């Protein structure tokens, strides 16, 4: 059996590192983080630039992912059965709710956004397809965690720090998160109350396939002023999300519930 190719492993490590640096990283930062010689890193970066997978920002000299990676990712997402089956239902949910809609799947302890429908108005918005979101601080993430026990983070050591906080409302302790997931399972949908972004709330529900396995989640997000009333999250919007999740699940062969 042929062995692994070290240069490809290093190139993959650089691409993964750049994927987490929205503003780009310098040669020194990449070299230091991966503990590789600068000359080695520079040679790999120049090769990745040549094939379009990496771009260099001038004059700062920082490196970031190039358009070639996005095209590869888009081809993967286009072939994703979940996304294909969900396109029309996501558009419909955005139209009914008047809010932005995202579909996410579990990917390396994060939510991978595989489809994003803009809020149907004239506001300026950014496409989030391919983004990675925290599981514990988003409605999509909690919908995935609640119905997929393998997605739960391992039990931390007694002196380990809590989960990352993004706002004052983020659930940062494992017991608090587990209690929240119990409620999500009981209700069949997950809330997000200014836990990732202040002033923004969200609603999500699980998507199941023909075996009953949770394969993704669909959710909407928007300003707290639009999605909440005196009693909390608006239940008509919750109903829209759950209807969309059930419809997509039926498309995937799940039994009606």
From TrEMBL:
Keyword check for Transcription: yes
Residue runs in coiled coils: none
IclR-ED domain boundaries: 68-254
Origin: domain of life: Bacteria
Keywords: DNA-binding, Transcription, Transcription regulation
InterPro entries with a match to the protein in the record: GAF-like_dom_sf, HTH_MetabolicPath_Reg, Tscrpt_reg_IclR_C, Tscrpt_reg_IclR_N, WH-like_DNA-bd_sf, WH_DNA-bd_sf
UniProt keyword Transferase present: no
Domain HTH iclR-type, chain residue ranges per copy: 5-67
Designated name of the protein: IclR family transcriptional regulator
